């Protein structure tokens, strides 16, 4: 999670919403790391989770990522939760809960829905205060500018 926090700080430096993600193999190897970049890439899908999944899949040569764990600083949105399901990610560990758009415990529980063909193990609230502080700093700066 600390590696994901570093990525979130990179996003903050680039004036992007500070969310970072790190994808780790079943053996504990970091496969990819990313931070939010929808503004700089002019891509509404360029969330940290999506970018990390894309790079991890490219590295493994497979769009399925069984046995992997995704660490992300903010609870994933519905788009990212759907991507986790399609990629067959085994486990999700996230920092701050997102009561406005969270799809892994706050607003929805997409990754745990028994009606879908894959479920993701979820652990939320890890380093939540640190991740929430970065988000608060970002939005404080936005209000001042």
From TrEMBL:
UniProt enzyme class: hydrolase
Single Gene Ontology BP annotation: tRNA wobble adenosine to inosine editing
Entry annotated with the keyword Transferase: no
Keywords: Hydrolase, Metal-binding, tRNA processing, Zinc
InterPro entries given in the database record: APOBEC/CMP_deaminase_Zn-bd, CMP_dCMP_dom, Cytidine_deaminase-like, tRNA_aden_deaminase
Record flagged with keyword NADP: no
Cofactor: Zn(2+)
Function, in words: Catalyzes the deamination of adenosine to inosine at the wobble position 34 of tRNA(Arg2).
Family affiliation: Belongs to the cytidine and deoxycytidylate deaminase family. ADAT2 subfamily.
Entry protein name: tRNA-specific adenosine deaminase
Lineage of the organism: Bacteria, Pseudomonadati, Thermodesulfobacteriota, Thermodesulfobacteria, Thermodesulfobacteriales
